Amino acid sequence: MSGGGNTEYGRKRFQRSRAHFTDRITADGRDGWPVEAGRYRLVVSRACPWASRSLVSRRLLGLEDALSLAIADPIQDDRSWRFTLDAGDRDPVLGIRFLSEAYDRRETGYPGGVSVPAIVDVPSGRLVTNDYQRITLDLATEWTALHRDGAPDLYPKALRDEIDAVMADVYEDVNNGVYRAGFATGQAQYEEAYARLFRRLELLAERLAGQRYLVGDTITEADIRLFTTLVRFDAVYHGHFKCNRWKLTENRVLWAYVRDLHQTPGFGDTVDFDHIKRHYYQVHSGINPTGIVPLGPDLAGWAAPHHREELGGRPFGDGTPPGPVPEAERVPASGRP
Fold first, then answer.
1. How much is the pTM?
2. Count of alpha carbons within 13 Å of 164, Cβ hemisphere only?
């Protein structure tokens, strides 16, 4: 999710930017960035669905000690994501006040937006990648030497074609679809995005009515990418982005599916509803000029039984759940159901 230009949200046609810095951190270091414990820092906002994918993957794979974490303030200013949650308004490891400083060290005068997730090389302070589509796939496949014992296979080779196909549809109509609806500047644009979003959600509900997870009988990358949009649906997309045919709580299958994932270690323990709501409602001033953050929805239902285990499935395959959240990374009570 990019920073800057916030007053333009809702006033110009939405177009998702492609990642500009697409270097990969790999086991063989072919792009000059070898996998190495402690070398890199993952910068995220808990508000951003694209960054939240990497939070879930990092937890499930047990990479907390290998890949350190910086959490940006959910409220950006025009200088980008900022580290005002940290002492002295600076990231304690990188020593910078704004994520844009790491971008500048990589490419002076870079004209694009400053987005999360981003991975920064700690020794040089330079951005390595902001490729939100690739980062989590590489965490699953290139960082295997640093995975915890019992880490799940989130991108199994035998299922990759099916996972890729499902993720492509989810990306176009759901992950991106809510933004195309929310940032539409004309009625026709909005209605097209709205129609495609809800048609895709209905198809996904049909698929998930008889199986616990999107592909195969275990959690995969496809579930992570759908979860990070669905978990925000009632809190921000239903009202703020006008995606209001129905609330997620009114769809029996999808509401049970997202609760199942939310209650799975590694998913819900990365979600901060306070950060999510404050970011969307206070940063998108072109859509919500008053900056008022709604008090609802009631979050009590997230802990309700989902009964999805009756469909079978093995959440972590032959692996095991991740351990407890590191104390420094626990979501504050204000952000939890």
1. 0.95
2. 8
> Is 9 assigned a catalytic role?
no
- Gap between the Cα atoms of 257 and 327, Å rounded: 28
CA 261 to chain centre: 14
User: Active-site residue 243, yes or no?
Assistant: no
- Among residues 48, 190, 280, 281, the one annotated as catalytic is 48
Tell me phi and psi for residue 2, to 5 degrees.
Answer: -85, 155
9, 103, 132, 179: the catalytic one is 179
How confident is the prediction along the chain (337 residues), in pLDDT tens digits per residue?
Answer: 654 445 555 555 555 556 689 999 999 999 999 999 999 999 999 999 999 999 999 999 999 999 999 999 999 987 889 999 999 999 999 999 999 999 999 998 887 889 999 999 999 999 999 999 999 999 999 999 999 999 999 999 999 999 999 999 999 999 999 999 999 999 999 999 999 999 999 999 999 999 999 999 999 999 999 999 999 999 999 999 999 999 999 999 999 999 999 999 999 999 999 999 999 999 999 999 999 999 999 999 999 999 999 999 999 999 999 999 999 999 999 999 9
